[in-house]
Amino acid sequence: MAERQGQTTPDGLLTRIGQVVMLHHGGDREEARRRLLDLWTELGAEGDPLHRCTLAHYLADTQDDPFDELAWDLRALTAAEEHEGSQAVRALYPSLHLNLAADYVKLGRAEAARTHVRRARGAAGALRDDSYGDGVRAAISRMELRLGEAAPEG
C-alpha cells in the first residue's frame, strides 16, 4: 500500500492498515472495524493526515449505518485536504469523492451525490493507468450512469 501511494520507504502504519483491510475483505467486518478504530485511537487527531485519510477511508467501509459511513468518509476528505500537495493524496481524491457520492445515494441525497461524482471525475486525471486507476474510473462511470450524469467521451 505504501508503494502505491508514492512512498519509497515502508510505512508501518499503512502496512498495518492494509493487514486489517485484508481481514475486512476476508469477511470479518466487525473485527476489522474494531482494529481500525484501535489504530485511529493510536494515531490520534493530530496524526499524519495521510494516515488519518487512509484510516478514515477504510473505516467508512466497515460501518453499518450510512450516516456513520458518511461521517468517516468526510473525515477522510478533511484529512486529505490537510495533505493536499502530495501526489499520494491527489490519487486518493477520485475514490474519496466516489465514496461520498455513494454515501449520499444511500441517504437519498442525489444532488450531493452528483456534486461528488463530478469532483471524482475531475480528479480522475491523477490516477495512474493501472488496474487500480482503471477500476476507479469504471466505478465513476457506473455512478455517473446511476445518477444520470453524462460521462465524458473516451
| Low-pLDDT regions | 1-9
Which percent range describes the beta-strand content?
A: under 5%
Following the backbone from N to C, one meets helices and strands in this order, namely HHHHHHHH
**Counted beta strands:** 0
| Percent in helix | over 70%
Tally of individual helices: 8
CA-based gyration radius:
15 Å
Distance between the first and last residues' Cα? 29 Å
Main structural class? mainly alpha
> How confident is the prediction overall: mean pLDDT?
90
User: What is the approximate shape?
Assistant: globular
Main sheet characteristics: none
Note the topology.
Layout: H1 12-25, H2 29-43, H3 49-61, H4 66-82, H5 87-90, H6 93-106, H7 110-123, H8 131-147
Helix pairs in contact: 1-2, 1-3, 2-3, 3-4, 4-6, 6-7, 6-8, 7-8
Task: Give the tags.
mainly alpha, 70% helix, globular, disordered N terminus
How would you describe the overall organization of this protein?
The structure is a single chain. The protein is built from 8 helices and no strands. By secondary structure, it is an all-alpha fold.
